[in-house]
Input
Amino acid sequence: AEGAKAIISWGSCASNGCIQAANPNPTGATPIHKIIKNKPIINVPGCPPIGEVMAGVIVYLLTFDRIPELDGMGRPKAFYSRRIHDTCYRRPNYDAGLFVESFDDESARKGYCLYKMGCKGPVTYNACAVTKWNNGVSYPIKSGHPCIGCSEENFWDNGPFYQHLASFPGFGIETTADDIGLAVGAVTVAGIAAHAVRANIKKRKLINADIEESKKEGGE
Ligand code: SF4
Output
């Protein structure tokens, strides 16, 4: 690292220790930024990280000869400034209160939101839903599996993968990972979550009313 202008930590292992560092971290696995202190560190987490994102970071460095703008966790904002939740094609189902209740149920076949199946998209910052994987073919949610939040620190210790989040802060698409940290300190999470639940119930009622109205108009 001595002659390096900057160091790129590829993947969650290098960026935050990943599974080796999961509690109780028996081997003392340590991310690069906690070892090397005298160089700029660019964290590109993900388990694995996205190929296009890796290429994008290198191209940026070569093209502009400077470090890309980073968030509070050292991740390039160009790829980690939006939540999976804000770019997810299933988001309209979340907003409408339409959820998968168990894998392979009718709602799963319809492609409803995976929030109740433990999806960590609302608290995960990455570009999966934008770039997707395998030349844009798919990403975990599109394949029917909830996001496990692999680009966030300590994601192995952030609760069971298949248990839904009790609450989460930041509902606007303008929210960044750094804003989330501020929001947690500024407001009660329970209050925000309650607002979201109320909004969804209200939307669900409106949708059901619309369905009933259509049935009446259709003569059912
Ligand atoms: S909770 Fe998950 S599946 Fe649902 S809209 Fe958000 S990111 Fe997509």
